[in-house]
Design goal:
Strand 2 and strand 3 form a beta hairpin. The two termini are 22 Å apart. By secondary structure, this protein is an alpha+beta fold. It has a three-stranded mixed beta sheet.
């Protein structure tokens, strides 16, 4: 996996944060994680959250940049953000890392 860029105080993530009515947001576009409402150091300490966002990076790599954006958008329109299969997969990554933390 290519090196990931983490951007704090992102306007894009801030817009997502307002839309989602959340105190903090991390979002992925390509190979970059954009943060709003959370510092990089705090984000990186949350292994489940990092696993979630890295799952999205792998999805971008698997489907390609524009194709993934299109598939994500179509899926969100069809079933909503929370039931979007790409979000379900990312939440599964959170759960998986949490289960393995007991052994780390």
């Amino acid at each position: 996996m290519a090196e990931v860029k983490i951007v704090e105080n992102s306007l894009l993530a801030r817009l997502a944060r307002v839309t989602l009515k959340s105190n903090n947001v991390a979002m992925v576009v390509g190979k970059a994680i954009y943060l709003s409402g959370v510092k990089k150091e705090i984000f990186l300490k949350n292994k489940a959250w990092v696993a979630h966002e890295y799952c999205h990076i792998r999805q971008f790599e698997k489907y390609g940049f524009f194709r993934f954006l299109w598939l994500y958008l179509v899926e969100s329109v069809k079933v909503g953000y929370y039931n979007n299969k790409f979000e379900l997969e990312a939440r599964q990554a959170e759960t998986s890392i949490a289960k393995h933390e007991d052994f780390l």
